[in-house]
Amino acid sequence: MNLIKRFKLSRELARMEKRAKEDPSPSTFVDLAQAYINLGWIDHTLRVAQEGLLLFPRSEELQKVHRYARMNRLNKRVTELRSRIAKHPNPEAYHELASVYREMGDQGALLNVCQECIRRFPEDCEAYLILGETEVQTYYRSLVAKEGRSAIKNLCHALELDAKSESAHQQLARLYFRVGGVRQAKEHLEHLARRRECEPEFRSLLDLCNKMPENEEDTDRLLLMAEERGSLLNRGEVTARASQSVASEEAISGIREGLSRLVQVEGVLKAAYIRGSKALVKGEIKNGRDPFLKAIRVIAKASQRAARRMDLGNFSKGIVDGSFGHICICTFGDVSAAIQVCEGTQVDRLLSDLQDLVAGSLFMAGQR
Prior knowledge:
With 368 residues, the chain is of the alpha+beta class. 65% of the residues lie in helices and 10% in strands.
């Protein structure tokens, strides 16, 4: 690019940057980001998208630009790390590559990288730890016993290589406790409690376990029972004043407000949030025996099982069409949120709002 073209380009970009600041709108930021995309300046594209989303967080176009720029930059980093590994393979490069894949949300690639690292460096504790932690999160979503067993196997292998691995002890303590393995959880909690810097969460969890009867079931049986039940026995985050309620009052209030906003949208007839046997409802729902609530539970359970059996990953959202209109449903673990809308209603944004409702409720309830 010669000097004159560079000067013109610089002046045009400066004009667009000024316009985006003086007269901000989703379109001005998208136009500016597109200009940077055309030039291949991904870092600038990402910066512009982030600035735009601060002002217009619900803009779908800006969200698409942000995803594109972010994934583009991460893919570039993947290429760099793959090249580095091809020339000088080492565990640290594999760990960084796994971290990039985690940020990209590519769980399959992450698992493959960990397994490749283990084949080359079988004594690398970190690879087993990353693999185990990833499988634990997969298990929490799917509750497939086989995935739970694999997670425990890899975390235990990490402890064989490094008996002081705090992260492995923490993951195993949480997992055992959540499936009802009080005895197994205590072994790891007692190790953590011996450390002066032990986090309050694990001291509280140990205090709670000491007050609970120890289970007689082995780990395999506990995992199978959780799979059959379709839910974990205990909550993930526990404090000394652990509550057995569905969520805090603050979380419940937020869920109710979210459901109220949904039923105010034209075309939405019913809205419900279900966790276990408890349900919060809004709209044209008469009582707890409303067929809509039963339909949500059946759809969620059937979809989760079908997705697992077909190796499609975890079912998270879907739409059921019928003479009744549409049922939009989002699930995560034992939580489901759904709405029934009239035929012809635009459901894309509503489905996104349902996902936000589920994610927000889990965050406020301390389930992440």
